[in-house]
């Protein structure tokens, strides 16, 4: 797959239906998953992989058309039925309605995948209050409402479960993305904290932390930024949604049974070398 600024980013449905996987076809048979932001990008790759492995899948996103398209592609290419609801994770009433609908339709839930998120590139010094609040509300608050709502339902039903949140590689900070960095760090430390609090409830809580991944979401960034994204790790290429989807399955399947509070970094080594500068490299840092 090319990562040198293609006309269209991300994997095609045909690729997601046929890419090789290390997992056996019936691995997740009967397992119930809810994937936020499952209508494109990494979330959609997760949906295809989960459906291929026999899971029941509910997805959500704000745009009904993209959700419906994903459902029909999964049906056409895999013969599997997935469910969807149009909603925003930033709205607590909509979060409750989504969780209630999922538990009711599936008779329970095994894994919540918090994947929906995003931000805009900007120097931190210029953030407006509204811009800061939007990014925190989406990536930290929205993710937390989903985590807490799922955990409350599991506790009330006397059932365990698993939560995996898609954050980002933020260990070294992320210039021009301080808002998302702060939000993702919040999710990471929520994860590390409730992994302990919720262990007695039989709830495991983990994260995947991607580096630069070629997805449709990158079309929101200018070509000069996305060109740099292919050069921000020692491998000097982007990852694909499939790399992250396989990480999510590893943590959710029995392979993850003794893993909680963990952050699985899937970044081609970006935690050691490479800086994104999504809004442009300042003169001071140009070499
Ligand atoms: C920073 C990137 C780091 C690179 C990391 C590595 C690569 C990562 C890539 C990805 O994550 S790909 C996925 C990308 N997808 C998205 O980011 C899409 C989701 N983004 C959004 O929905 C929005 O950007 C949002 C900020 C989360 C909020 O959207 P919402 O619709 O609620 O609010 P808006 O009305 O759009 O904006 C509110 C407020 O935010 C400020 N703002 C928004 N966009 C920009 C911008 N491009 N530049 C500067 N400021 C922005 C602004 O203050 C807006 O208020 P108003 O000016 O509209 O009143
Ligand atoms: N691509 C990358 O390089 C990296 C991405 N990430 C993060 O990983 C996650 C997935 O990324 P990626 O696949 O690239 O993202 P995309 O932008 O391609 O997809 C985002 C998905 O989230 C949904 N979504 C956005 N806002 C909301 C909301 N308020 N409520 C419900 N659903 C929402 C979108 O649907 P809709 O717009 O219809 O709501 C879409 O389905 C995001 O959190 C992203 O920020 C982290 C590191 C790197």
Automatic annotation (TrEMBL):
Pfam families: adh_short_C2 (PF13561). Transmembrane segments: none annotated. It is an enzyme of class 1 (oxidoreductase). Keywords: Fatty acid biosynthesis, Fatty acid metabolism, Lipid biosynthesis, Lipid metabolism, NADP, Oxidoreductase, Peroxisome, Phosphoprotein. It catalyses: (2E)-tetradecenoyl-CoA + NADPH + H(+) = tetradecanoyl-CoA + NADP(+); a (2E)-enoyl-CoA + NADPH + H(+) = a 2,3-saturated acyl-CoA + NADP(+); (2E)-dodecenoyl-CoA + NADPH + H(+) = dodecanoyl-CoA + NADP(+); (2E)-decenoyl-CoA + NADPH + H(+) = decanoyl-CoA + NADP(+). Its EC number is 1.3.1.38. InterPro entries: NAD(P)-bd_dom_sf (IPR036291), Peroxisomal_t2-enoyl-CoA_red (IPR052388), SDR_fam (IPR002347). It is found in: Peroxisome. It comes from the Bacteria. Pathway: Lipid metabolism. Participates in chain elongation of fatty acids. Catalyzes the reduction of trans-2-enoyl-CoAs of varying chain lengths from 6:1 to 16:1, having maximum activity with 10:1 CoA. Has no 2,4-dienoyl-CoA reductase activity. Interacts with PEX5, probably required to target it into peroxisomes. PANTHER family: PEROXISOMAL TRANS-2-ENOYL-COA REDUCTASE (PTHR24317). This is Peroxisomal trans-2-enoyl-CoA reductase.
């Amino acid at each position: 797959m090319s990562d040198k600024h293609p006309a269209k980013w991300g994997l095609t449905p045909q690729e997601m239906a046929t890419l090789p996987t290390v997992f056996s076809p019936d691995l997740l048979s009967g397992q119930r998953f809810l994937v936020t932001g499952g209508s494109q990008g990494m979330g959609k790759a997760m949906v295809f992989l989960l459906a291929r492995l026999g899971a029941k899948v509910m997805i959500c996103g704000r745009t009904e058309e993209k959700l419906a398209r994903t459902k029909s592609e999964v049906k056409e290419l895999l013969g599997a039925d997935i469910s969807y609801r149009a909603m925003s994770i930033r709205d607590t009433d909509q979060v409750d309605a989504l969780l209630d609908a999922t538990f009711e339709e599936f008779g329970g839930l095994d894994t919540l995948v918090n994947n929906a998120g995003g931000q805009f590139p900007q120097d931190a010094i210029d953030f407006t209050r509204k811009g800061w609040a939007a990014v925190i509300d989406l990536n930290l608050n929205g993710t937390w409402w989903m985590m807490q709502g799922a955990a409350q339902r599991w506790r009330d039903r006397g059932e365990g479960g698993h939560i995996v949140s898609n954050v980002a590689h933020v260990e070294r900070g992320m210039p021009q993305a301080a808002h998302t960095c702060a939000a993702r760090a919040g999710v990471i430390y929520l994860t590390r904290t409730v992994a302990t609090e919720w262990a007695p409830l039989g709830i495991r809580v983990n994260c995947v932390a991607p580096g630069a991944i070629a997805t449709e979401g990158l079309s929101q960034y200018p070509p000069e930024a996305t060109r740099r994204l292919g050069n921000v790790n020692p491998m000097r290429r982007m990852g694909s949604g499939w790399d992250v989807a396989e990480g999510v399955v590893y943590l959710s399947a029995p392979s993850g049974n003794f893993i909680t509070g963990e952050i699985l970094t899937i970044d081609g080594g970006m935690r050691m070398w490479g800086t994104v500068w999504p809004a442009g490299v300042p003169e001071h840092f140009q070499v």
